[in-house]
Specification:
Layout lengths: L5 E6 L10 H5 L17 H14 L6 E7 L12 E2 L11 E2 L1 H5 L4 E2 L5 H13 L5 E2 L16 H14 L4 E5 L28 H8 L2 E6 L2 H15 L2 H4 L2 E4 L10 H14 L2 E3 L8
Parallel strand pairs: 1-2, 1-8, 2-7, 8-9, 9-10
Antiparallel strand pairs: 3-5, 4-6
């Protein structure tokens, strides 16, 4: 008899994206000082609690847990230090940098040898209709506290590993400082000289090998949307129908709620299931 394979994909469940209450921050790593998240998504701490409860409740029936980790350097194309204006000042967080801004010399790469790259990069983003480059607060820097998985989700994963004698698997994305990497399958602008920015079939293979796959994480408007879109783009309808987005465990970056809503509607039309954790029958 065929054993039903259930997988869980958690996208970027890292401290820098969670609106961690102050009392929780104070206990982080036994350090007495608060460690504020750099890019907190509103309502994400409640999302983390709900996902942890879901993992605990479904513990015996989850066969795979895969976690993507947003993994950056301080020097990154979407961080301020990569750019400067003619006065040598770096852009403020949430500054948009268009192809035309670079042509006009409003913003230039700090390393001018990268001028041709950033011109091609921004032109490609705008041509494909993705967006203008947005400068984010410096976040998910490798080896920082903000890069680590939030405690409620990590605790639930640890308990699942102990119960099932299985290990969760992590996929890191974003290490190359010269391209953005929202989705877990490939960078926004894959680079010819870096295979880690090119399409990685691990997540589509996970869907194909599973009978059902639940998806959660942060943020719905960006990395969750991008990852799911990249997966769906490569999958036939029969596999798309295996995907369930746990909508009560993911939230949008403030100001990007409409973008997230459009993504959810598009995915529903393509056959992705949208459900609350409370809608899923307990094992």
């Amino acid at each position: 008899m065929h054993q039903t394979i259930t997988s869980l994909l958690i996208i970027d469940p890292q401290y820098d994206f969670y609106d961690v209450p102050l009392h929780e921050q104070l206990t982080l790593g036994n350090q007495p000082t608060a460690i504020p998240p750099s890019l907190p998504v509103p309502h994400s701490w409640e999302d983390a609690q709900r996902l942890a409860t879901f993992i605990d409740n479904k513990q015996k029936s989850i066969n795979n847990i895969v976690v993507t980790l947003d993994s950056h350097h301080k020097y990154d194309i979407a961080h301020a230090v990569y750019w400067q204006n003619k006065h040598g000042q770096h852009p403020a967080p949430f500054t948009l940098i268009s192809h035309q801004d670079i042509v006009d010399g409003l913003w230039l790469p700090t390393n001018l040898e990268l001028l041709d790259h950033v011109l091609e990069y921004t032109q490609s983003l705008e041509k494909t209709g993705k967006y203008s480059l947005l400068i984010w607060p410096t976040h998910c820097v490798i080896d920082s506290v903000g890069h680590t998985i939030v405690a409620p989700i990590q605790t639930a994963i640890n308990a699942w590993e102990k119960q099932t004698a299985l290990l969760h698997h992590t996929i890191s994305k974003g290490e190359n400082p010269h391209t953005e990497h929202y989705g877990g399958c490939e960078a926004e602008y894959p680079l010819r000289d870096d295979i880690k920015t090119q399409f990685d079939p691990q997540l589509t293979a996970l869907v194909v090998q599973s009978d059902r796959i639940f998806i959660s994480g942060q943020a719905l408007s960006h990395c969750v949307a991008s990852t799911v879109e990249q997966m769906v783009d490569k999958l036939p309808l029969a596999d798309i129908k295996k995907i369930t987005l746990l909508i009560d465990t993911t939230s949008s970056v403030a100001g990007f709620e409409q973008q997230a809503q459009a993504f959810v509607e598009k995915m529903m039309a393509l056959g992705v299931n949208i459900a609350n954790t409370t809608d899923i029958m307990p094992s």
